[in-house]
Amino acid sequence: AQSVTQLDSQVPVFEEAPVELRCNYSSSVSVYLFWYVQYPNQGLQLLLKYLSGSTLVKGINGFEAEFNKSQTSFHLRKPSVHISDTAEYFCAVIIVGSARQLTFGSGTQLTVLP
Amino acid sequence: NAGVTQTPKFQVLKTGQSMTLQCAQDMNHNSMYWYRQDPGMGLRLIYYSASEGTTDKGEVPNGYNVSRLNKREFSLRLESAAPSQTSVYFCASSESVGGRGIDTQYFGPGTRLTVL
Question: Residue A44 and residue B99: Cβ atoms within 8 Å?
């Protein structure tokens, strides 16, 4: 079975500060990992994804995530946030070769304060 | 190029009423999806269509039906609405046949449904 846990439901941070949004998954087999972002009153859009290769993945808007197989984590980071990064962020997982669909985490609301 | 469009944007129903949520994409994508989003629960897949003419159940299909009308359109029907179906509904599409979610999904703006 595949599941994903986002440890923080809300993360407030001041503008220009760094941020890390945590994501852990439960699977003993190979997985693909994703981060999606949802801006207020909009649908989700893909930030970045890990399918294979380098464990450090760079996405849009200056975000990056690191796949850590030993810790089953895929944390999202940005070195300096802007007000416009205020949004909800969803981690998602799918097992390689599985017939199952993408499983989303419960989301982390990032609020950037002036 | 509108991407994924959904109608209506908002809807209020009484318990027992029926309605159909419409979704269309203009990206020539093969796979389409319906999700519901509830506070603190992320997105949960209701149904998906891995290619034109096929539909499959997702994680929470009870109380819903779908129709893949053609390659562009994928509708979601609530036959007898219940308060537990109060949610925000998102339609999404992706390019590949098979619809396993590995390729990027493109989401519509959502339909906010309230069942009284």
Answer: no
